[in-house]
Each structure stands twice: as C-alpha cells, then as structure tokens.
Amino acid sequence: MLEDKNTQKTSLAELGEFGLISHITKYFKVEKASTVKAIGDDAAVLDASEKQTLVSTDLLIEGVHFDLSYMPLKHLGYKAVMVNLSDVYAMNGTAEQITVSIAVSNRFPLEAIEAFYAGIQLACETYKIDLIGGDTTSSNKGILISITVIGKAEKDEVVYRDGAKETDLIVVSGDLGAAYLGLQVLEREKQVFKVDPNNQPDLDNYTYLIERQLKPEARKDISGLLKELDIKPTSMIDISDGLSSELFHICTQSKVGCKIYEEKLPLDPQVISACEEFELDSTMVALSGGEDYELLFTVPIANFDQLKGNPNFSIIGHITAENQGLHLVTRANQDIPLKAQGWNAMNDH
Ligand code: ADP
Ligand code: MG
C-alpha cells in the first residue's frame, strides 16, 4: 500500500532552495500559446485574450486534507492539481496554467518532492496545462501545498452558481460516494497495519473506490459533451464537499428550492456493496461523501430529451420555488428536508 517508500534519501538542506527549484521544474515543458514566460523570472507572463480569465486557489495541509500514510506523494501531486482544475471546469471554462507553492519540512528527502512533482507533471501532461511558477519554502512540520489555476472562457459561456430557475432539471455527471468509501477502506487498512504490519490487505473489491480517492479525475470533458448536445447549464458547481452541500450553494445563490429523488442517485456497484459492509446508508454517502469531483448542474426542462438515457449524466431532480426548501424524496415516497452537512465533517476543502 505504501508505494512511496523512498529507498534513496537526499537531504533538501544539501540541495538548497534554488537547487531544489531548478531540479523539480526542469522536466516541465510549456505548451500553451498563452504562456509567454513560465518559470525562471520574477513573474510569469501570460497573453491576455478576448476571453474572460478564471482564477481559483486551494490550500492543502498535511494531517487536515491528506494523510501520507496511505496517500502516495505522486498521487497527492496529481490530486492537488485535479482539485483546482475541477473548479475551472465547474465554471464551464478551460484550464490553462497552474502555479504550485509548497512548504516542506526537512523530514522530506528530495526523492519525496520528486515523487510529488511527478504527479503534478502527469496531471499537466494529461490535462494540457502549463506549470508557470510557484514558491518554495520550509515548514516546521509537514507539507503544505497551495495551487492556483488560471483558465479561460468566453464571456457568454461562463456558468455561475446563481442561475438556476424554477422547473430546471438537476443533473450530475458520473457517480457519487465512491471517493468517501475509498477513504473508509484506506483508514481501515491503516488501523489493521498498525496492529499487524505483516498483514497484506486484500483490496480487490475496492479498486474503484480507492482509485476515486487516490486518483480522482477532473471532468474536463463535460463542457464539450454539453456543447455537443447543444446545452448550456443555467448553473453549475463541482462536487467537492458532497452533493447536499453543493445543492445548498446553488439553491441559496439562485434563490430557489429543489427536489431530488433517492432512486435517481447514481451509485457504482462497489459503493453499494461497500455500504453494506461498512453498515453505511448509501444515500447518506452519496449526499455527504464529498471529493467526487463530479459536476452538478441545472438545465432548462426543455433539454430533457437531449440528456435522457445519456450514460454520462443522471437527472436526479428539479428546481422548485425558494419557499419549498430543499428536499429528498425517498424510495418510500417520503419527503425529507436536506441538510447542508452530512454526519461527517471530514471534507473541508
Ligand atoms: P523569487 O525569489 O522571485 O520568489 P524564486 O527563487 O522563489 O523567485 O523562484 C524562481 C522561479 O521558480 C520563479 O519563476 C518561481 O515562480 C518558480 N518556482 C519557485 N518555486 C516553485 C515551485 N515550488 N514550483 C514551481 N515553480 C516554482
Ligand atoms: Mg519565491
């Protein structure tokens, strides 16, 4: 499970700050036409275009947002980029550049930082993003990561959280709850490992769950899929904190209510079987799990035929008047009010 056991250890102090920066950044190539100058000067230079610029930042702290005992550093680098790209895709934009700032304690050898940057690089190559700068400093304890993403969108293509209208359909991409269950599986194995380090975990039944937790993918494809269907969402948000919490953001900002249907929530079979094993309610997991990095959006009801039966999307409900509040209709046809937070406050990015 701990694939980042570093065999070689080169101390960061030996290398110095500038040595470290040039070492970790030398493998990055610039590809975007809008990147005029990337790493190496006092500031990066970008070519402004007619389009609007999207900017988003996330700060991740060891022990709060991730646990290195089961999160390999390469995966951490990859995921840290995904978390940011997801925010740009949720605005219906394209991501173009990132900056990456890190604070690391000298407990980390160079090889650990290399693994982290290998994950950043894989994300940049896969998603066609340029790394254009950042900052490197030391911390007293642990590792801190701050990534900023810069993206673009045509003015009339940007989708905000506040545009949902009564009768709009509520749609999610992909499926929900798997990343949260992946974390439960990893936490359990960590406890087992503490008791008996020779115990080799059997994770075959949880491959999808663990992949969703350790190597999430941001939904770069959704914007294009919707364009092909000739659909422009009225509102959109990415699912980082859980479906319920994101619905609250959309409804509050759009001044509407909503009704979603338990039977419509998209669940992977591994989610259903892991919920049985962990004695968790799969609906609660889908509503409050978080870290799925799927997109939640609303579309006019006239788009129903374009979306119906599309395997990328699930229509889970519709927007109602503000005074109706936010509701879940259960399989037993009961109306229950949604809560912004689930029973577990694990997700706070
Ligand atoms: P300054 O002293 O002006 O802050 P630095 O020596 O910190 O410059 O950085 C030199 C160059 O390396 C800059 O282009 C900066 O953006 C880039 N850089 C520094 N740290 C990182 C990092 N962790 N990841 C990517 N680029 C970095
Ligand atoms: Mg600096």
Q: If you had to describe this structure to a student in words, what would you say it looks like?
A:
The chain is an alpha+beta fold and 349 residues long. 33% of the residues lie in helices and 23% in strands. It contains 10 helices and 13 strands. It has helices spanning 12-25, 73-89, 110-127, 178-195, 207-214, 222-228, 243-254, 269-278, 282-288, 304-307; strands at residues 35-37, 45-46, 52-61, 94-104, 130-138, 143-153, 169-173, 235-238, 257-261, 295-299, 313-320, 326-329, 335-337. The strands form 3 sheets. A 7-stranded mixed beta sheet has the order 8-10-7-11-9-12-13, sandwiched between helices. Helix 1 (12-25) runs parallel beside helix 3, helix 2 runs parallel beside helix 3 and helix 4 (178-195) packs across helix 5 (207-214). The radius of gyration is 21 Å and the shape is globular. Mean pLDDT is 93; it is low at 342-349. Adenosine-5'-diphosphate (ADP) is lined by residues 21, 25, 39-42, 100-102, 131, 133-136. Adenosine-5'-diphosphate binds next to helix 1, strand 4 and strand 5.
